[in-house]
Amino acid sequence: MKFIDEARIEVIAGQGGAGSASMRREKFIEFGGPDGGDGGKGGSVWATADRNINTLIDYRYAKTHTAKNGEPGRGADCYGRAGDDIELRMPVGTIISDYETGEPIADLTTHGERLCLAQGGVGGWGNIHFKSSTNRAPRQKTNGKDGERRKLKLELKVLADVGLLGMPNAGKSTLITAVSNARPKIADYPFTTLHPNLGVVRVGAERSFVIADIPGLIEGAAEGAGLGHRFLRHLQRTGVLLHLVDIAPFDENIDPVADAVAIVNELRKYDEALVEKPRWLVLNKVDMIPEEDRKQVVADFIKRFKWKGPVFEISALTGLGCDKLCYSLQDYLDSVRKDRDDADERAADPRYQEQAPPEDKTPD
Ligand SMILES: Nc1nc2c(ncn2[C@@H]2O[C@H](COP(=O)(O)OP(=O)(O)OP(=O)(O)O)[C@@H](O)[C@H]2O)c(=O)[nH]1
Ligand SMILES: [Mg+2]
Predict the structure, then answer these.
(1) Same domain for 34 and 142?
(2) Does the beta carbon of 173 sit less than 6 angstroms from any atom of ligand 1?
(3) Residues 207 and 333 grouped into a single domain
(4) Which residue range is the domain that position 166 belongs to?
(5) How far apart are CA 68 and CA 64, in angstroms?
(6) In terms of CB atoms within 10 Å, which end of the chain has fewer, N or C?
(7) Among the atoms of ligand 1, which is closest to the Cα of residue 177?
(8) How far apart are CA 192 and CA 169, in angstroms?
(9) pLDDT tens digit string along 14-70?
(10) What's the confidence (pLDDT) of residue 356?
(11) In terms of domains, do 146 and 166 share one?
(12) CA 328 and chain centroid, separation
């Protein structure tokens, strides 16, 4: 299935049905009085986050989503039927904003989260509401209100704890296949992966995190080279990036350090905040380097790349070093989550509220 992470749609809620101005007319009944019922409410348009959907493709083709109008009221105190609501199912991670103003409306982050995008118009009043002691036979009624109408932008940014970053063929899809339940296509040609894949990594019996594999990035991606750089948006909401480097390229003319520098430059061109995000260096394909040379090759790389952060040596193909990487990621994510929970707790606890500093009484 084609992966689409951006769409523009229009949602139109149903109009309320008109109220009725009917008079009761029955044989042998005098002074029947008003009996016109209210119009039904127009249908609303809702968005629901659904974890079983992972693309916005449906909204590329169907752009306008219109809910039914409410039915008009009728005589004999009949109220009009309300128009049915419609439900738009969207992937978890969809950000909804106003297309014209860009104003954010919602961020669907959990499965089942639901939000009204356009409210159906209320039905009009029938003449039964207008009878009074002085007007026993009112002919007034009101029309239903129009339903809301909105143009919206949908943007999907996948929600994952860990994001994979690297040149094509670095072994990103091989790694996610080795450690998670995701089964993306793997091949020895560049740009095998064309859209993000998510996988759940289980660490021990109870702990897990979500990892995202995205297409490979190359120098000049910001200018459109390769698949461009727009899918980097899927790394924006991750907690930590794994920069995967093929440490043993087949082609001797390829310099892994130059490639790694190019990736960081592209990251910066897309979004400075991505460069600031915690990033770990993962040197892949160490199985291709004779064991006795590994230490030296790795040390050279780190020195030339001037890298000071965490480094992991792995072989996504044989699984070497993958367990250690996953345990470290899980520990790191757990500690970040704990710090965040503690901070939230402190913020909610009045004892930790910031107190005004005591007045300084010392003379100048
Ligand atoms: N020897 C060896 N080969 C590997 C290793 N990891 C990946 N490969 C091979 O490298 C090639 C590319 O792997 P992929 O996982 O498709 O690479 P990718 O980074 O997902 O590539 P794109 O999707 O094109 O960006 C495949 O032929 C893999 O079998 C490894 O640790 N050792
Ligand atoms: Mg791939």
Answers:
(1) yes
(2) yes
(3) yes
(4) 162-346
(5) 13
(6) C
(7) 15
(8) 8
(9) 998 888 878 777 777 767 777 888 888 999 999 999 888 878 888 888 888 999 998
(10) 60
(11) no
(12) 26
